[in-house]
Amino acid sequence: MNGVSPLMPILAFVLVIYLVLKRPIFRIPFTQKFIKIDYGLAPIIGVALLVVTFSMGASSIANGVVGTETIKPYAILILFMSLAYICVSLDSTGFFAYLSLLAMRAAKGNGRRLFMYFFLLSSFLTLFTSNDIVILTLTPIIYYFSKNAKVDPVPFLIAEFFAANIWSVALYIGNPTNIIVAQAYNLSFAEYSKWMVLPTIAAGTVCLALLWLIFRRRIPKKFHIPAVPPESAFRSKGGAVFGSIVLACCLVTLSVSSLINVPIWAITLFFAGTMLVHDVLRYHVLAARKPGAKKAAYYVPRVPAISSRMPWKIVPFVLGLFIMVESLSVYGWTDKLASSISIVSTNVFLAVFIMGFLSSLASNIMNNQPMTILFTRTLQNNLFIAPAAATKGSMFALILGSNFGANLTMIGALAGIMWGKILMDKGCSISFKEFSKYGLLIMPFVIAVACLVLVVELMFWA
Amino acid sequence: MFVLHVVQQLSKFIENEVRKEFSWAVELFKKEGITSRLEIVESADVKEAIISTVKKHACDVIVTGTIPRKGLLGYFSESISDYVVKKAPCTVILVRRAPRPR
């Protein structure tokens, strides 16, 4: 690669981040067709740019796709996509919407109680599924509720979003970023939870207290309960029961995966396959045989509809980013970053706090997934020299930052952009400035408390 | 005349909410003697759903609202109307957001 500027991978990386956030539409030259460059296509353009400028060889591409001994992108993707299928399928039954309407009814017209219930529901659902799915489901419901009840939606929406991005830290499966870091360090499901549950509980509690302090005057004391029976949210009760059982069994098996010595991606793939077979049988084969099937089919979930809600573009996105980070590594950029971070990570306290805040901020510059891939490679670099407990602390703090960073500004994670867009399309816009005001007021305290709990854990357990 | 609304997933609850939300539009057409139908489409991709519905019904004109996108979020969020203008097989009329009639 003689004669190629070492700046090229950096420039390509910056270009990819810009395209991921901006998602421009271009006209294909000499045609009437347009092409939208989104997060699925942007990293492919970045990789192509590196290949045509001879900044990357075939070995970098192969390393990026196949991975190394520790990071295996294909395992991360199978794990994530399998879980996504289970959660999207369960959501398609209307189960999560049913729980939201149940929470609304249980609040009995008390606004403050409902605020608490929405925060807890968002936390609970995120704990067992993933933040993106919770945001996609709860946001339109909160919007419809606020409109009907004629209440200010902002406190409820912010509580839902913040809760989703805090409680996603607790379990291995809460966010793709957790999976990337945990896979890189070969953490089992149970060991991951052992370290991350307490910082999550502390962060969730502080966040709820601060949200309450900020919004207490904006939350109505009383509201009119919309006359909506929670059952009307269901599309398939039987599917909801089966899906919940599959998810529960999957989580239990994951938590004992280290004892049965089966890779966790194989476990999630098995349960996703079970769910898929069930969906085909219940929604296609059996539903078609029922009398009045045509009328009932209006609401019944369908496998193609479930599939269309799956985050397929995350596959080229994550693979492309792994390849790009590989090229940054080849040109020595991760060496530079690793030695710079290790200079200041001299003890557990500094390592945790610096990585916690640095990764949260970096998520808002380069989005949380590219940041996690880059920082994971950096922490695994030979030039990252720190005491063992500090290295462990940096790794867990990176997980905290990759989740919490999404609450600082709306561009910290793809979930934030998606959330802002859902609301903007409904004419209920929360500006970037308003969101950032709450994020910057609340999140530094939340990050600090979570880091502190992590430091205490490391002092006693490491 | 089709009044189109795209939802992520359709349930009885969502359908009722959408019917309530768009009743004013259907009433407005009725008052003017125009036959209209509220079409609720389930799709994860709003803009693609608009284009495919237009193609399915061979519509002559699309009238869609457009919200001016301001600030940093506006810069980083795509506009459905932009996409529709580029992909539509027919004339597109964009209407800037106006207060709803009461």
How would you describe this structure to a colleague?
The complex is a heterodimer of chains A (462) and B (102). Chain A is mainly α. Chain A contains 22 helices and 2 strands. Chain A has helices spanning 7-22, 42-52, 58-66, 73-92, 95-106, 111-128, 131-149, 154-167, 176-184, 189-215, 237-255, 257-260, 264-289, 293-296, 303-308, 314-330, 333-344, 348-366, 368-379, 388-404, 414-425, 432-461; strands spanning 25-27, 34-36. In chain A, strand 1 (25-27) and strand 2 form a beta hairpin. Chain A is globular. In chain A, 51% of the residues are buried. The mean pLDDT of chain A is 89. Chain B has 102 residues and is an alpha/beta fold. The model of chain B has no long low-confidence stretch (mean pLDDT 84). The A-B interface holds A 21-23, 25, 27, 34, 36, 91-92, 94, 97, 101, 136-137, 140, 144, 147-148, 228, 232-235, 298-299, 301, 305, 308-309, 410-411, 417, 420-421, 424-425, 427, 429, 431-433, 435 and B 7-14, 16-17, 20-21, 42-46, 67, 69-73, 75-78, 80, 82-83, 86-87, 97.
The helix-strand sequence of chain B is EHEHEHHE
- Poorly predicted regions of chain B are none
Average pLDDT for all residues of chain A: 89
- Helix content bin of chain B: 40-55%
In what order do the strands lie side by side in the largest sheet of chain B?
A: 1-2
Shape designation of chain A: globular
End-to-end separation of chain B: 22 Å
Query: How much of the residues of chain B is beta strand, in percent?
Result: 15-25%
Q: How would the global form of chain B be characterised?
A: globular
Oligomer: heterodimer
Number of strands of chain B: 4
**Relative strand content of chain A:** under 5%
